[in-house]
Design a protein that fits this description.
The protein starts with a strand and ends with a strand. Helices cover 38% and strands 24% of the residues. By secondary structure, the chain is of the alpha/beta class. Helix 1 crosses helix 3, helix 2 packs across helix 3 and helix 7 runs antiparallel to helix 8. The protein is built from nine helices and 17 strands. Bound molecules: adenosine-5'-diphosphate and magnesium ion (MG).
Length: 314
C-alpha cells in the first residue's frame, strides 16, 4: 500500500476567530477543511496560533488580580497553556463531529499539551516584537505599561497592543509522545499557540515570558515528524510580491533561492507574512522531497491537489 502523505497544518487567526462564539463557529469550517485533507488520503497533524486567545486569557487573569488581591499576576507561559487547552477542546470536538458526520469512525482525536524549549539567550528576549491581545488607545496603553511593566507598541495605525518576546523554538519536549500518537494513526493537535515556551534549568523546565511564533513551531514539528508537507493556512490564497501595491502579483511557486531574494527585498511584512515565508522556506530545504504551501483555509483541498496556493520547494 502506498504510504499516506504526512502533512502538518498550521492554522492562523482566521481559522479560530477572535471571541468565544467566533471560535466555536470558526472551528466547524476549520474541521471541514482538515477532514477534506484526510479524505484526500493525507495523514494530518494540526498546529495552531493563539494571538487573540492568549491576549484574552491574559486580560482575564489580570482582571482576576483586581478582583482578588491574593491572586498574583499569571505568567504568560501559563496563559499559553490555557490557550492550548481551550483551543484544543473546541478543535477536538469539531474534528470528532466532522469525522463522524462523514462516517470516518476510527480516527481518535486528541490534543497534546506541548512545551517547547527556547534559548534564554535568544536575542528576542531583549526586543519584544509579537503583538498579543486587544487594541488600546494611547492612554489605556500608557496605564497598563506602567502598571504591569508591559511593552506597548503602535500596530499599523490600528491602536496600541502589548508586544512580547518571540524566541525561536529549539526543542519540542513532548515530541516522542506526539510521534507515537501520530504513528498510531491518531489525529493530533500539538504545539498550539506556538507551544508553551520553557527554558531548561537542570531537570526543571521553567516557563518563559514569551509567545513562540506558530509558523516556526509548526516548521519544527513538521521536521521532527518527518512530514512530507507543511501547510500554512492563513487569510490569503497565495503569497504576493508588492503586496497591496498597484503592481501586486500573486506567486504560484518559489524556489529557495527566489524566496531568499524576495525576503531580502522586503516583500513580506514582519510579524505576518515574513515568518510564514521563512518557515516555509526552512522546511522546504530541510530534507529530500519536502514542500511547503501557504494558502487559505478554504482552499486547502485544492492546494493539496496542486491547484492553488504558493508552493515552496528546494
Ligand atoms: P495568521 O493569523 O494566519 O498568522 P497574519 O495576519 O499574521 O495571519 O498574516 C497573514 C497576512 O499577511 C495576510 O492576511 C496579509 O494581509 C498579510 N501580508 C503581508 N505581506 C504579504 C504578502 N507579501 N503576501 C500576502 N499577504 C501578505
Ligand atoms: Mg500570524
Amino acid at each position: 500500500m502506498k504510504r499516506r502523505k504526512r502533512i502538518v497544518i498550521a492554522l492562523g487567526g482566521n481559522a479560530l476567530g477572535n471571541t468565544l462564539p467566533e471560535q466555536m463557529a470558526a472551528v466547524k469550517t476549520t474541521a471541514r477543511a482538515i477532514v477534506d485533507l484526510i479524505e484526500e488520503g493525507c495523514e494530518v497533524v494540526v498546529a495552531h496560533g493563539n494571538g487573540p486567545q492568549v491576549g484574552m486569557i491574559n486580560n482575564a487573569m489580570i482582571a482576576l488580580t483586581h478582583e482578588d488581591l491574593a491572586q498574583p499576576n499569571t505568567p504568560l507561559s501559563v496563559c499559553v497553556a490555557m490557550s492550548q487547552a481551550y483551543i484544543g477542546y473546541d478543535l477536538q470536538n469539531a474534528l470528532r463531529e466532522e469525522l463522524l458526520n462523514r462516517n470516518i469512525p476510527n480516527i481518535p482525536v486528541a490534543t497534546m499539551i506541548t512545551q517547547i524549549r527556547v534559548d534564554e539567550n535568544d536575542p528576542a528576549f531583549s526586543s519584544p516584537s509579537k503583538p498579543i491581545g486587544k487594541f488600546m488607545d494611547a492612554e489605556e496603553a500608557k496605564e497598563v505599561a506602567h502598571k504591569y511593566d508591559y511593552v506597548m507598541k503602535e500596530d499599523a495605525g490600528r491602536g496600541y497592543r502589548r508586544v512580547v518576546a518571540s524566541p525561536k523554538p529549539v526543542e519540542i519536549i513532548e515530541i516522542e509522545t506526539i510521534r507515537t500518537m501520530v504513528d498510531a494513526g491518531d489525529l493530533v493537535i500539538a504545539c498550539g499557540g506556538g507551544g508553551i515556551p520553557v527554558v531548561r534549568k537542570g531537570n526543571h523546565l521553567k516557563g518563559a515570558s514569551a509567545v513562540i511564533d506558530k509558523d516556526f513551531a509548526s516548521c519544527l514539528l513538521a521536521k521532527e515528524l518527518n512530514a512530507d508537507s507543511l501547510i500554512i493556512l492563513t487569510a490569503v490564497e497565495k503569497v504576493a510580491v508588492n503586496f497591496g501595491k498597484p503592481n501586486e502579483a500573486w506567486l504560484d511557486e518559489l524556489s529557495a533561492a527566489q524566496a531568499q531574494q524576495l525576503i531580502s527585498e522586503g516583500h513580506f511584512a514582519p510579524g505576518s507574512m515574513l515568518p510564514k515565508v521563512e518557515a516555509a522556506l526552512d522546511f522546504a530545504v530541510s530534507g529530500e522531497g519536502r514542500t511547503a504551501i501557504i494558502t487559505q483555509l478554504e482552499k486547502s483541498r485544492e492546494a493539496i491537489q496542486g491547484k492553488t496556493g504558493t508552493v515552496f520547494h528546494a
